[in-house]
């Protein structure tokens, strides 16, 4: 049986959650929709597998089966709601991030970048990180985030503060690491309207682009380099008959959002494309 790499499984989960959110609104309603019609208490694995194929998210039959049975942890050939919720809760939370949270995250990003040019991204993020109040482990906890918001005179509800923290703390560890901080705010390094337009198009066609990234990933490790990124984006733009985007603007976008200036972990990037700064 074909084994999906972890990054591909997360991509499948993210895309499925995006579709679920649009169609059903919440995980419980989606589960009820997918359940066996005569029973209503569980999802039959074979039916769920067929649903994945019908959803056209770039899976072969073997890959769809592999993903389905990764949810069925008790190996009963059926999926209960606890199994369903456990597998999709994190990605669904990302997909349903409140617009208010994105707005406040953007304000934090604006404070970091302050209209500085893109080539200073690394230095600006490093400088901002060094000023944050840290725990003894060298990370930022909820209290530390609260101090930062007070410094910047950003007033928000406790729910919004928790949402901001969870947005940045993508691992769910309860403490924001430097790597999570950099990733959360790397997307603010967009300095021109031309690059911002490419970013907007990438958001719009994130589903198609995610599949193109999987195809372009020559090593199969969830990472694309600049050439692979540009090729994947251009292939989708060609299919969508978007012919007026210069390659230089796509390259500039890659350099703005990549973890460094060499590679991009596209499965985590795709989640951020869906919810960031709309």
Please give a structural write-up.
It is built from 15 helices and four strands. It is mainly alpha-helical. The chain has three domains: 6-95, EF-hand (Recoverin, domain 1), CATH 1.10.238.10; 99-188, EF-hand (Recoverin, domain 1), CATH 1.10.238.10; 193-275, Recoverin, domain 1 (Orthogonal Bundle), CATH 1.10.238. The radius of gyration is 20 Å and the shape is globular. The model is unreliable at 1-5 and 273-278 (pLDDT under 50).
Task: Provide the fold topology.
Layout (H helix, E strand, L loop, with lengths): L5 H18 L3 H8 L8 E2 H10 L6 H11 L6 E2 L1 H15 L3 H15 L7 H11 L10 H10 L6 H11 L9 H8 L7 H12 L1 H11 L6 E3 H14 L7 H11 L5 E3 H10 L3
Helix pairs in contact: 1-5, 1-15, 3-4, 6-9, 7-10, 11-14, 11-15, 12-13, 12-15, 13-14
List keywords for this structure.
278 residues; mainly alpha; Recoverin, domain 1; two-stranded antiparallel sheet; two-stranded antiparallel ribbon; 15 helices; 4 strands; disordered N terminus; disordered C terminus
Please give the count of helices: 15
Beta-strand segment tally: 4
The percentage helix is: 55-70%
Main beta sheet, described? 2 strands, antiparallel
Number of separate structural domains: 3
Report the CATH architecture of the largest domain.
Answer: Orthogonal Bundle
Compressed to H and E, one letter per element, the order equals HHEHHEHHHHHHHHEHHEH
Overall 3D form: globular
* Spatial gap, N to C terminus: 40 Å
* Beta-strand proportion: under 5%
Give a brief outline of the structure.
With 278 residues, the protein is mainly alpha-helical. The chain has 15 helices and four strands.
